[in-house]
Amino acid sequence: MSEIRMTTETRTDYECEVAGLPAERWAEAVFKLKESGEEEFVIEVSVEKAGIIVGILVGEVAWKGTLEGFKKLLKGELK
Fold first, then answer.
1. What is the pLDDT of residue 11?
2. Which pairs from 68-77 meet CB under 8 Å and 24+ separation?
3. What is the pTM of this model?
């Protein structure tokens, strides 16, 4: 059996919660945005030997990089 390296949780404002979903290498959350014609918003986290990789996709726009790079992006230090 593979090693569990991370777990995922999902919570909504309808008081729905799923917790403890195991993952060995990657996990993603997909949100279908009905307000924008079923556009998808996707967040993926991948645990690699070289480090943690984060990917974000909104419609046709995507960003992928390291966890440190994602933190810099959120702080406005990376474009």
1. 95
2. none
3. 0.84
